[in-house]
Amino acid sequence: MLKAMSASENSGWTLVVPVKTLVAAKTRLSAAAGPHRAALAVAIACDTVEAALSCALVARLVVVTGDPVAAEALGEIGAHVVGDPEAGLNAALRHGALEAVRLAPDDAVGALQADLPALRPAELSRVLTAAAEFDQVFLPDAAEIGTTFYGVRPGVPFTPGFGGESRERHLRRGAKELFVEGVESVRHDVDTPDDLRLALALGVGPRTLAMAERISASNRDGGRASGPIGG
Ligand SMILES: Nc1nc2c(ncn2[C@@H]2O[C@H](COP(=O)(O)OP(=O)(O)OP(=O)(O)O)[C@@H](O)[C@H]2O)c(=O)[nH]1
Ligand SMILES: C=C(OP(=O)(O)O)C(=O)O
Known about the structure:
It holds the Pfam family CofC. The chain is an alpha/beta fold. It has helices at residues 30-33, 37-53, 68-77, 89-103, 121-131, 166-172, 184-187, 193-202, 206-221; strands at 13-19, 58-65, 80-82, 108-112, 136-140, 147-152, 176-177. It has one domain (12-156, 163-219): Spore Coat Polysaccharide Biosynthesis Protein SpsA, Chain A. The protein is built from nine helices and seven strands. Strands 3-2-1-4-6-5-7 form a seven-stranded mixed sheet, with helices on both faces. A hairpin with a 6-residue loop joins strand 5 and strand 6. The chain is globular and about 55 Å long.
């Protein structure tokens, strides 16, 4: 998606967001979400992408996915969707970054996780402003084990090292760790029911909220625990 920008805003960020094929997505939420797991994964990705596109510093957003349902939903929101090379998460991100550079060679490129349903555009702006000071940066997740954002300045090689203990990996590779106050919504990725409860407490986007309420109701009807996501 190309957003309208003022003359003074002639450059910005292109974000690349990876979205796994839905049959394999959010498996750690399987027990809690039951038959709603794939719909929850789409809802979370859509809320993340919509919030990211609302950030003034985000000029465009490239989603990498091989999933037709996710591709359609995210394309409708305004993402530029490309296919998945099916060689893992970092290959998907590098593929998206090639498209990002093709679309806007003079813009910075960032990878943003797709599971940030509480994302606030103003908090993402703070992260991107801080990131622009360095060649290669990352933001650790709230647990300080993984990574939620990785970015490079225009022209700097894009070499993301997501997966597992990626904070340590990004540090080893010389990426600058960002320390920015008040950006919890950019750090709270959702993998487990506890993560989802935390995100709900921060305040999630409308699709995730609706899905969480639906899951909670169906768990209640099925005689299971009735709090948000069976909590
Ligand atoms: N396009 C693409 N995205 C991926 C791939 N692997 C992971 N992702 C995305 O990268 C992010 C982190 O992925 P994971 O934590 O491995 O998977 P998840 O679906 O979030 O959760 P689990 O199934 O519980 O591990 C999520 O936004 C995924 O959609 C891949 O091979 N291709
Ligand atoms: C892929 C990552 O995250 P997670 O598996 O927690 O979604 C990561 O933090 O590098």
